[in-house]
Amino acid sequence: MKAFLFVSALVVGIAGISAPADAQNYPWCAQYSGRGGGARNCGFTTFDQCMATVSGIGGICVRNTQYAPSSARPNPHTRVRRRLRYRRAPR
Q1: 63 Cβ neighbours under 8 A, 6+ residues apart
Q2: For residues 45 and 26, what is the distance between their CA atoms, to the nearest angstrom?
Q3: Whose CA is closest to 55, among 27, 32, 29?
Q4: Which residue from 4, 56, 53 is spatially nearest to 30, judged by alpha carbons?
Q5: Is residue 28 exposed (0-12), middle (13-18) or buried (19+ Cβ within 10 Å)?
Q6: In a 10 Å sphere around its CB, with 0-12 CB exposed, 13-18 middle and 19+ buried, how is residue 26 labelled?
Q7: What pLDDT, on the 0 to 100 scale, is given for residue 68?
Q8: Strands 28-31 and 40-44, how do they pair?
Q9: To bridge 32 with a disulfide, which of 20, 38, 56, 71 should be the other Cys (CB 3.0-4.6 Å)?
Q10: What is the gyration radius of the CA atoms in the chain, in angstroms?
Q11: pLDDT digit string, tens, across residues 53-88
């Protein structure tokens, strides 16, 4: 019984230390047609991806009004490493 309590406390402790989950934020929403207004899925990165999902099942694609683009910008001063290809000399 003591071992079970110890393992349970350890699992709860590790779960509390982990990083918090961030909500996914995408620019396009699929509004599915239905009697009560239908469902809404805001999990699309492109308009074409959204349209491919609603084609055949009914619905429209609209911009996500809650979408906030990431504020992280790439640092222009970082160097891009390129992989160099070397050819072996013929023997």
Answers
A1: 27, 28, 29
A2: 6
A3: 32
A4: 53
A5: buried
A6: middle
A7: 83
A8: antiparallel
A9: 38
A10: 24
A11: 999 888 899 999 888 887 666 666 666 566 666 666
Contact 40, 63 (CB under 8 A): no
Q: What is the pLDDT of residue 49?
A: 94
Nearest residue to 30 via CA among 57, 62, 1 = 62
CA 16 vs CA 8, 12, 20: distances in Å: 12, 6, 9
Per the structure block, which two tokens stand in for 29?
Answer: 């929403």
Is the pTM value of this prediction over 0.90? Answer: no
Instruction: Write the DSSP symbol of residue 37.
Output: -
- The pLDDT tens digits for 11-30 are 666 666 766 666 668 999 99
Say if residue 36's pLDDT is above 70: no
DSSP conformational letter for 76: T
- Find where tokens 């929403």 sit: 29
